[in-house]
Fold this protein.
Amino acid sequence: MTDAPEPATLTPAQLPPVAREVFRDGMACLAGAVNIVTTDGPGGRSGFTASAVCSVTDQPPTLLVCLNRGSSAAAAFAGNEGLCVNTVGPDHHDLAMLFGGKTPMADRFAASAWHSGASGAPVLEGAVVSFDCRIAQRHVVGTHEVMFCEVVGVETRPGAASVWFGRRFHELRA
Amino acid sequence: MTDAPEPATLTPAQLPPVAREVFRDGMACLAGAVNIVTTDGPGGRSGFTASAVCSVTDQPPTLLVCLNRGSSAAAAFAGNEGLCVNTVGPDHHDLAMLFGGKTPMADRFAASAWHSGASGAPVLEGAVVSFDCRIAQRHVVGTHEVMFCEVVGVETRPGAASVWFGRRFHELRA
């Protein structure tokens, strides 16, 4: 009688990735703010909806934004030095959907009121918080670019916030 | 009569960053999930609480985690190839606080039940979602390191989730 061979133990580097749908279903369980990320400058005015935004360090104050390099917004962000992260609340759910779809850029911006931040990027009137930024560093990861952004201005408004979880918006009170 | 000089317009790169407190108060308005990020392997078993986790791309399924290079957890993550992002729900608010403080690692892990993911990292029993990962790429940004992680396993549990907003937890239902 011979012993059965031990099952091979894979190192982490040898493990296959999960299927895309498994990943997406998992990400639907990771609650997060929804943001309209805007830019303006020599590369043109543009914006897109992103949940992939987070704080990196406060020395100096830095956040990151992930951008799909194949998206219609990508060229403008490549050509500009500034951007603004506008976190949407209950008043701006429809606007977030608009900036996440295929609507032409001019029509997206015409759907709300904006003013210009110091970076030149459009700041959404009535956003929960807006972070006006300069793009300090860019790092490509597959289909996406991670933009590391130093924060040069912050505007906050009291009131309700929204969070995306389970593929729908939920409302929060501070 | 002479005209007053035009105010100088600064390019984005010339703009000074905001004060750290302004940045922190702004970030308190950016709602997000709270995660206990764990690892195990040759570098040792370790874990810390992080809100700075987000999706990067689904080709291949990839998320990122920001880690303070000066933290007590950093050495273990530098020495290991795997990690697990465990998103906390209402049952694990105290555990998230424990993993965000100064408690010794052994005492942190003793406070809850875990099993091992394929990567070797501890998976939190009852987490809202757990992403078992291999660390595919590391990128230093100032005080922090961004770990880009390919997802090799996902576990989700139905029920409530929690989100951090306004410096406190809020409960969500799917």
In short: Residues 32-158 of chain B form a domain with the Pnp Oxidase; Chain A fold (CATH 2.30.110.10). Chain B touches chain A through 72 residues (CB under 8 Å). The CA atoms of residues 69 and 142 of chain B lie 9 Å apart. The radius of gyration of chain B is 19 Å.
